[in-house]
Every structure is written in structure tokens, then in C-alpha cells.
Amino acid sequence: MTLKEFFKGDRFAVLAGCELLEISQGYARARLTVGEQHLNGGNFCQGGAIFTLADLAFAAAVNSHLVLTVSTHSNISFFRSVPLGATIFAEATELIDHHRMPYGEVRVTDGQGRLIALFTSGGYRKQDAKLEGVDL
Question: Kindly report the CA angle at 135 between 120 and 70, in degrees rounded to 5?
Fold first, then answer.
């Protein structure tokens, strides 16, 4: 199984409509098209949907070493609202590839490449939890 297939088991992200497009060592890219179910009371994309997209991209990037890695803390800043029907992209880069505590940044952009949100997160690699049977 590929890492992309492994993350189809992330039921919350899948149900939210997030899709992994690309994964390579220390990098991942994901997308979400904003539907009615993603809207907040102001009729634009709810921050939790954007967070979920960014979190999935972060998880894919840091798990690219095929050792189960979980988030320990995350921070997100929002810069633009996202309307119904827009497609947004999350591009995750592992900035620190530490054997136990990696750190990454995710830039969430719209179709024109404008920055929507910036997400940073640290993780913890569970050394005894290799992703057996999973390939990049």
C-alpha cells in the first residue's frame, strides 16, 4: 500500500473532502473544494475545514519517513476568506527532520496562489511504530 492509500484511513479528513495529491520525502500537497458543508455563518469556509486540510498535508509530509508520527501542537493564522466553490491547496514542507520531533510548515493557498492560511506544527515520531507494508 502507498502512503497516499494509508491516509484514506484518515476518516475525518476524507469525510471533510480533503484529497492528498502528492507525497514525497518531507513534502505533501493536498486539496479541498469548498462545499455547502464547509461554510460558516458568514457564508465562507469555516476555519476548521482549512485546519483539517493543512493538518492532513502536515501528517503526510512527516509520515513520509514511514514511521508513525503524530502531531503534538499546531498553530494556524488565517489571512483571507474562502468562498463557496473555491478550491484551496495545502503545501506541507518538513522544516526539521528530527528522528523524534519533526517540525513543519503548511501554506494554504487558493487557485491564484494567494496565501489563505499559514499552519505550523510539531510532531512526535513513535519509533516502535514503523508503517509496515506502506511505501512512499
Answer: 30
